[in-house]
Structure to design on (1194 residues):
């Protein structure tokens, strides 16, 4: 059977990300992700279970916390997305299902979305060309999350650090269109200047 | 750029010093093929004037010679075609086009040349071209309109020519946020930005021009004891060092919108031969601000007199701008004609620049001390209580006819008439949201009335024309705006300025002129046109505008509207506010469609969604079809196949006889969980789902509240409280929204969690008699997929290819034994390759949406054309599925008499009586002997296909009482495509009507 093993492939058809101090982009395609939503009346139990298992306090509104190597991203009322590296075999759906039996529904989203990391001194300027929300540090900081769009592509956007580094999670089928926009928006900061 | 040669070349009107141009560098440019020199800091207009070029354009209607009237974006006349080739840009105002080395500009609207234009003969026929001439002249005969009149008018009246080539440049859009947005970088705006920026507020300062400073620099004023441009430079330094300040130069705020949102166009690269690598040509900004300080200044208005459009008649403020900012004297012998105190300032600046000011003609009988002081100092001849009645000359001004107070006329030779009729504050952005301007009797101008929420005013737009008041007003408005946006104001001292006088006594038009007197120069509307409109009853301002086209050109009539209104007021004996007010709509100045499109052009018009098999399909030479945003495989041509029909027929036959594989990942997939999930789904589906057992799936339909079919798909039960449903590709988003609405609003008490899983799974239909054999090579041996272990409508969570988690559904839309297999999407590409490899021994092929469509029609399954928002389950043969005993969305309204009328067109199949005939969807059904008229319409064909399995075309359609009419012959009447075909009404199921093949 060995020659029949399926190998994963990238969601991007054409991926040549910029990598300069002004702007760098990379795709995170080796993640395991699961969405989970509290069962009716089990919101508190869910918070306690996540806190006990991972030491994370689930954000009550648009926000992101990181604990035990897992990022918990608010995805709607009483809904979150858990994200971590797949690292060969880790399966967050299975892991969370076991820990949250009876208190939340868990759905594998590892392949639903791809995450693009964007960082550099001009990251904000580039994002401003497609994302209609305010990313000034006073309005959006590490830990902030927005469900928004980038040039007509729906994304969940969060800030990782003050570099600044952002991550945008989009549905897999949009990855190529997102990349095309990103490269065009970044062109003025990464093209060779005369 | 080349080093400056000694002297200034042919720039005969260029001053040896002064202005903000860089004389150390010379730029070369061409106008109508002739080469001229200018300097960095010039506009095309200032450089042309420096070279003594006065004639720059021909007018729109009469092809009259025109020159440069203004020095900014209000310019009505000096429109040129800028650049050439694919970058050719018509109707560019020479007054805002910045000079660069190698710039090429061409005059427009003239033939064969600017100096000799054949169509200037229009002037002789001007009685024909008066207001309303379109309506009066080209009435009869109607047949000539399209062939003769319209092309003639278009050629004669057109302005520049757009390039036929694709625009090689890119455009983009961006959003920026501010606590305080300052619109206008003149003295008021700069003072406001400074005061706001000294707090912690985030400030955006926007200015239309390349350089900040506005009129303070144009007038070479003094601020805080220094030349204005030095104060501007100091302030610019302060602002640019502040990280919370963004200065947008060359940016026009063109519209105000709700919620503190403003549209602005940044001309990023318009001043360059071509954009820098990666840089856009223009950027469209959406600016969102808590508070806005509007400091847009004012536009000078001309006075209407005879020949006031001659090249060499120029707004007085523009003359000062050319002298002070560009170091250009636009004329050597000048008559200044004014009704206000700024005329004297103009005379003074011209004298200082070495020009001969022949006279200052001031229409006012009473002259202020301010004016006397200047005329005494400069020795300029003051002629008060007088008016210029005509500008003399043909292609440029050679003199001025002046009527003195006692009625006597004198003629003065001159080459420039500088005219000022007062100032109109630039209030446009206050009116975009419906604010009505208010007439001010001191300035004789409209000032903003109600302004958009969060906006305050500073400087000329607030009625503070003088520099001292502008600085003070800007300072106060900036502080207040910052404070109101939550950033505590800090007192910033207001710089001092020299005294000015803004006294004005209105004079709108001169009586007793001889030539043509223009009110709207861009659209060639004369004073007489307004009188004609008045005589013919078009007195309301909106009628006046439409009848004469006044104010409807690209300059929005910025030098015309108030004059026209005032003239109409005089003609009708009313006050100006009684006559009407002028309000503006966006855009304040033209915005290229390319900028509005931004990134979204060509293939980027909308995002494209690529299915998991896309890369593989592309390698196979697949033809794709756009379905919504998705790019789906349509069919897979093979070498030697003549057309799509041959390909599709082969794909269908392969599925019916062997096995085919189709990417169905685009179908919506929704994960539904919770203790209330079963009850929830039972509420939204029309068919009963409570009896669905774990490990099985079922076809289901959902209705809208009004009883019309909304969507269909499958419901799989993966666990007691866990369902997985599919929707059509088209309705995937709509169905999730509907379900969320139902969960949150209709039945919040139910424990149900809904999440879209469409993109998680790459899902392939594996269909055909050999499908199980193929899958047995893929599915891990631990899972039994025999017919007993995995019967029709079974569903299971399995693994494939050695442990990859997967889901297997035994579903069929083709009528053959078929499965759908889903794997995590990242494995989708690998799985299609593996399936095709494993299928080789069975003769497998891939198939696309075309074959999918053919097979569902052959089986009588409904799809988009039948799920068209007008059909009930009964209409499409699904009446039997509708649960009788339960309540569900749509059940009540679905029982309305109109929806259960047995006469409604219902789904049946059709085949042509002449088996070789082609069927067309959209054809209407008529009884054989019925006349083809709407009253006899009995329904229509919804879907057709060439059926390889039947050997002829087949169709599905909605026919009145269709199921009762099997065997009947009707007409499929299609007048659009000229078809009238006899068809037989048959069962909609053309293949395997007993359905034995799906069960194997």
């Amino acid at each position: 059977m060995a020659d029949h093993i399926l190998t994963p492939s990238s969601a991007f058809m054409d991926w040549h990300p910029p990598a300069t101090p002004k702007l760098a982009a990379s795709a995170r395609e080796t993640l395991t992700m699961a969405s989970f939503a509290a069962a009716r009346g089990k919101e508190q139990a869910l918070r306690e279970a996540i806190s006990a298992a991972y030491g994370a306090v689930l954000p009550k509104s648009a926000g992101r916390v990181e604990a035990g190597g897992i990022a918990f991203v608010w995805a709607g009322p009483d809904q979150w997305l858990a994200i971590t590296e797949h690292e060969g075999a880790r399966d967050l759906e299975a892991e969370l299902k076991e820990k949250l039996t009876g208190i939340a529904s868990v759905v594998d989203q590892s392949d639903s979305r791809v995450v693009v990391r964007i960082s550099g001194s001009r990251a904000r300027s580039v994002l401003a060309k497609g994302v209609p929300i305010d990313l000034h540090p006073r309005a959006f900081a590490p830990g902030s999350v927005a469900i928004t769009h980038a040039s007509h592509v729906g994304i969940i956007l969060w800030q990782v650090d003050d570099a600044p580094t952002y991550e945008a999670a989009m549905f897999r089928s949009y990855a190529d269109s997102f990349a095309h926009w990103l490269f065009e928006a970044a062109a003025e900061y990464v093209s060779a200047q005369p | 750029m080349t080093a400056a040669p000694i002297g200034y070349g042919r720039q005969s009107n260029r001053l040896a010093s002064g202005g903000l141009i860089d004389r150390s560098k010379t730029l070369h440019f061409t106008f109508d093929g002739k080469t001229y020199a200018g300097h960095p800091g010039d506009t095309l207009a200032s450089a042309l004037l420096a070279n003594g070029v006065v004639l720059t354009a021909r007018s729109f209607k009469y092809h009259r010679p025109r020159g440069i009237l203004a020095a900014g974006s209000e310019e009505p006349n000096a429109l040129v075609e800028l650049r050439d080739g694919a970058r050719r840009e018509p109707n560019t105002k020479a007054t805002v086009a910045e000079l660069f080395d190698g710039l090429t500009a061409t005059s427009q609207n003239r033939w064969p040349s600017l100096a000799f234009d054949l169509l200037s003969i229009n002037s002789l026929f001007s009685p024909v071209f008066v207001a309303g001439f379109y309506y009066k002249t080209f009435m009869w005969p109607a047949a000539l309109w399209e062939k003769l009149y319209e092309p003639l008018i278009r050629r004669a009246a057109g302005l520049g020519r757009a390039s036929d080539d694709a625009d090689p440049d890119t455009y983009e859009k961006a959003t920026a946020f501010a606590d305080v947005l300052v619109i206008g970088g003149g003295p008021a705006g700069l003072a406001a930005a400074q005061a706001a920026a000294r707090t912690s507020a985030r400030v955006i300062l926007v200015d239309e021009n390349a350089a900040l400073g506005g009129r303070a620099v144009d007038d070479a004023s003094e601020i805080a004891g220094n030349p204005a441009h030095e104060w501007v430079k100091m302030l610019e330094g302060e602002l640019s060092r502040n990280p919370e300040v963004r200065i947008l130069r060359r940016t026009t705020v063109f519209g105000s919108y709700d919620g503190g949102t403003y549209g602005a166009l940044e001309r990023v690269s318009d001043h360059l031969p071509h954009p820098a690598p990666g840089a856009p040509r223009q950027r469209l900004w959406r600016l969102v601000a808590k508070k806005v300080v509007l400091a847009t200044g004012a536009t000078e208005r001309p006075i209407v007199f005879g020949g006031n459009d001659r090249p060499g008649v120029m707004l007085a403020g523009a003359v000062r701008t050319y002298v002070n900012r560009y170091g250009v004297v636009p004329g050597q012998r000048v008559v200044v004609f004014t009704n206000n105190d700024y005329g004297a300032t103009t005379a003074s600046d011209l004298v200082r620049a070495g020009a001969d000011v022949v006279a200052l003609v001031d229409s006012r009988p009473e002259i202020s001390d301010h004016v006397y002081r200047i005329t005494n100092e400069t020795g300029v001849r003051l002629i008060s209580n007088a008016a210029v009645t005509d500008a003399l000359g043909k292609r440029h001004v050679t003199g001025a006819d002046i009527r003195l107070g006692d009625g006597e006329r004198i003629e003065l030779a001159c080459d420039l008439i500088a005219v000022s009729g007062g100032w109109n504050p630039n209030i446009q952005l206050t009116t975009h949201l419906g604010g009505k301007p208010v007439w001010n009797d001191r300035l004789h101008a409209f000032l903003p009335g109600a302004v958009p929420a969060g906006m305050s005013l500073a400087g000329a737009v607030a009625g503070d024309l003088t520099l001292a008041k502008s600085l003070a007003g800007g300072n106060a408005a900036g502080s207040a705006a910052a404070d109101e946006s939550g950033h505590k104001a800090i007192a910033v001292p207001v710089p001092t300025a020299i005294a000015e006088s803004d006294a004005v006594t209105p004079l709108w038009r001169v009586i007793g002129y001889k030539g043509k007197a223009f009110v709207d120069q861009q659209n060639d509307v004369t004073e007489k046109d307004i009188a004609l409109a008045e005589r013919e009853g078009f007195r309301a301002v909106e009628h006046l505008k439409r009848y004469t086209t006044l104010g409807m050109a690209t300059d929005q009539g910025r030098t015309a509207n108030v004059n026209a209104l005032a003239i109409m007021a005089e003609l009708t004996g009313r006050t100006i506010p009684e006559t009407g007010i002028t309000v503006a709509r966006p855009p304040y100045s033209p915005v290229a469609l390319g900028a509005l499109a931004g990134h979204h052009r060509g293939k980027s018009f909308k995002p494209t969604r690529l299915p998991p098999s896309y890369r593989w399909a592309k390698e196979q030479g697949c033809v794709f079809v756009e379905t919504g945003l998705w790019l789906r495989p349509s069919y897979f041509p093979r070498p030697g196949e003549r057309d799509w029909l041959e390909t599709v027929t082969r794909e269908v036959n392969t599925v019916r006889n062997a096995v085919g594989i189709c990417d169905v990942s685009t179908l919506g997939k929704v994960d539904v969980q919770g203790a209330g999930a079963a009850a929830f789904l039972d509420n939204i589906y029309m068919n009963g789902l409570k009896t669905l057992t774990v490990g099985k799936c079922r076809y289901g339909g959902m209705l809208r509240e009004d009883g019309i079919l909304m969507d269909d798909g499958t419901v799989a039960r993966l666990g007691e409280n866990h369902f997985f449903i599919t929707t059509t590709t088209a309705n995937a988003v709509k169905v999730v929204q509907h379900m969320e609405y139902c969960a949150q609003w209709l039945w919040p008490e139910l424990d149900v969690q809904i999440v879209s899983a469409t993109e998680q799974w790459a899902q392939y239909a594996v269909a055909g008699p050999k499908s199980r054999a193929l899958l047995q090579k893929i599915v891990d041996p631990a899972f039994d997929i025999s017919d007993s272990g995995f019967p029709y409508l079974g569903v299971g969570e399995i693994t494939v290819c050695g442990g990859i988690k997967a889901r297997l559904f035994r579903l069929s839309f083709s009528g053959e034994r078929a499965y759908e297999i889903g794997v995590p999407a990242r494995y989708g590409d690998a799985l299609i390759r593996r399936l095709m490899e494993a299928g080789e021994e069975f003769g497998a092929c891939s198939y696309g949406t075309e074959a999918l469509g053919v097979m569902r029609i052959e089986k009588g399954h409904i799809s988009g054309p039948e799920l068209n928002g007008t059909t009930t389950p009964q209409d499409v043969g699904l009446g039997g599925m509708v649960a009788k005993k339960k309540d569900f969305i749509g059940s009540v309204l679905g029982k309305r008499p109109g929806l259960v009328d047995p006469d409604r067109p219902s789904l049946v199949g059709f085949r042509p009586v002449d088996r070789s005939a082609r069927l067309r969807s959209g054809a209407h059904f008529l009884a054989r002997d019925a006349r083809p008229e709407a009253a006899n319409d009995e329904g229509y064909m919804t879907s057709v296909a060439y059926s390889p399995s039947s050997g002829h075309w087949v169709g599905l359609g909605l026919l009145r009482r269709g199921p009762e009419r099997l065997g009947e012959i009707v007409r499929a009447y299609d007048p659009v495509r000229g078809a009238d075909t006899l068809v037989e009404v048959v069962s909609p199921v053309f293949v395997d009507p007993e359905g034995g093949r799906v069960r194997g």
